[in-house]
Design brief:
Blueprint (H helix, E strand, L loop, with lengths): L3 E4 L1 H5 L13 H4 L12 H4 L4 H8 L5 E4 L6 H11 L3 E6 L5 H18 L3 E6 L6 H12 L4 E6 L3 H4 L2 H5 L2 E4 L5 H13 L9 E2 L1 H11 L3 H13 L5 E2 L1 H8 L11 H15 L3 H13 L4 H16 L5 H16 L4 H14 L5 H14 L61 H15 L5
Parallel strand pairs: 2-5, 2-6, 3-4, 4-5, 7-8
Antiparallel strand pairs: 1-3
Helix pairs in contact: 6-7, 10-11, 10-12, 11-12, 11-13, 12-13, 14-15, 14-16, 15-18, 16-17, 16-18, 17-18
Length: 447
């Protein structure tokens, strides 16, 4: 039936030879973990007593909603749930299946349960691609426990999955795999008989290159390794073979070393210097090297206030929106958002007046220039406060001309301080003109 794929439990466990562990199968399929212990990363999900552990080891019929980036083990977990409890494993393609196929899969699972008592794990990959009607079709099977649903998504389920399905499923968040996790996956595949069985070795340079290109995706890393092994000479995968196989040059970039700090420093300084072309070059180097896109987005948010400020207040909005988008959609699509934000911030007018203002204010506080809060500004809401002068003679700004009251706000120690010194760059020129007028009115200097 179109859109459906059924596999026996023995194949899930690797107990018998099947298409999933045959030598002709892709390396990523052959190396798919068969138990929770073999699953890489996700330590909190695998912990003894965790919900996932209870489902796998205890055989509980709980429906799971797996949310995480590609290649973190969502399909693998579904297979483990099926294989560990000797259940049928049926996969529904969210790309090609319709409501008819979903209902057929659930009806078949119900019939199997009634006839033999055998339960079915129904795996729906990319469940966010299902329409509301398709997701609704899953509900009877989940509610009546005719199937153990394992649905996977790379998108935020609170936006992409209907509430009834979300409330009836246990949501498990999978984290991106670390470089060490990916390195372990590759080393195991090189040695394991299911993988390359020690037929080839790999240099550290080539291994590092594959790890960077994988970007935390175990499936991608194994695909690259298989291609590199085919291009290896004399039984060793060198850097040249890895580059040739993946058709991508190695980027000299260590996410924990000097290159990391040098490149991100050049990136920030290029944006600050309004060179959008140079900034895009360094952004591309970070993306190609597998830098965490969330790290890049965080740096842009910092820069929006540090180097642009009120010269263009929309820069911060753009940077925050970019960070949220990166979190919601992930790579590779998020590269467009990062490029958008990078160019917008690079071409924006620049001002470090906000940065200088807070640093100057903190310097005074650190130097002991603190002083008492003026009495008319102190809290006057509690009984007896006015008897000791709190709030007395306070001028309510909205009752004053232009909504600005002439009165002292700062403590005596810094009453004449002028921390914020706006520039004439971009929108801050208008802020400067208004602020200078307002400051004089507040301080009684407008006459």
């Amino acid at each position: 039936m179109d859109g459906l794929f059924e596999m026996g439990a023995s194949a899930s466990r690797g107990g018998s030879l099947s298409h999933s562990d045959h030598a002709a199968a892709p390396l990523a399929v052959r190396m798919r973990p068969r138990t929770l212990e073999e699953l890489v990363g996700q330590s909190s999900l695998k912990a003894s007593g965790s919900p996932l552990h209870q489902v796998v080891e205890g055989g509980q019929s709980l429906s799971l909603l797996l949310w995480g980036p590609p290649g973190t083990g969502k399909t693998t977990i579904a297979s483990i749930v099926s294989g560990s409890t000797d259940r049928r494993f049926v996969e529904v393609s969210a790309v090609s299946a319709g409501v008819k196929e979903v209902r057929a899969a659930i009806d078949a699972a119900r019939a199997e349960l009634v006839a033999t008592g055998k339960e079915t794990v129904l795996f729906v990959d990319e469940v966010h691609r299902f329409s509301k009607a398709q997701q609704d079709a899953l509900l009877p099977g989940v509610e009546n426990r005719w199937v153990t649903l394992v649905a996977a998504t790379t998108e935020n389920p609170f936006f992409s999955v209907i509430s009834p399905l979300l409330s009836r499923s246990l949501l498990l968040r999978l984290e991106s795999l670390t470089d060490d996790d990916i390195r372990g996956v590759l080393r195991r595949a090189l040695a394991d008989e299911r993988g390359l069985g020690g037929s080839v070795s790999i240099t550290e340079e080539a291994l590092d290159h594959l790890v960077r290109l994988a970007g935390g995706d175990a499936r991608r890393s194994l695909t690259y390794l298989e291609a590199a092994a085919g291009a290896a000479t004399e039984g060793e995968i060198g850097l040249e073979a890895a580059e040739r196989a993946v058709d991508q040059a190695a980027v000299r970039y260590d996410r924990q070393g000097d290159q990391h700090y040098d490149v991100v420093s050049a990136f920030i300084k290029s944006v600050r210097g309004s060179d959008a072309d140079a900034a895009l070059h360094y952004l591309a180097r970070m993306i190609e090297a597998g830098e965490d896109p969330r790290f890049i987005a965080r740096r842009l948010m910092i820069l929006a206030s540090e180097d642009i400020g009120l010269a263009d207040s929309t820069a911060l909005q753009t940077a925050v929106a970019a960070a949220q988008t990166v979190q919601l959609i992930g790579m590779p699509e998020a590269q467009l958002t990062l490029a958008h934000a990078t160019i917008a911030l690079a071409v924006a007018p620049k001002s470090n007046a906000v940065t200088n203002a807070i640093f100057a204010a903190r310097a005074d506080v650190a130097a002991g220039k603190i002083g008492n809060v003026p009495p008319h500004l102190r809290d006057a809401h509690y009984e007896g406060a006015k008897k000791i002068g709190h709030g007395k003679a306070y001028k309510y700004a909205h009752d004053e001309p232009f909504g600005i009251a002439t009165q002292q706000y700062a403590p005596d120690a810094v009453a004449e301080a002028e921390y914020y010194q706006p520039t004439t760059h971009g929108a801050e020129a208008g802020v400067k003109e208004r602020w200078e007028r307002v400051r004089k009115i507040v301080r009684g200097q407008d006459g």
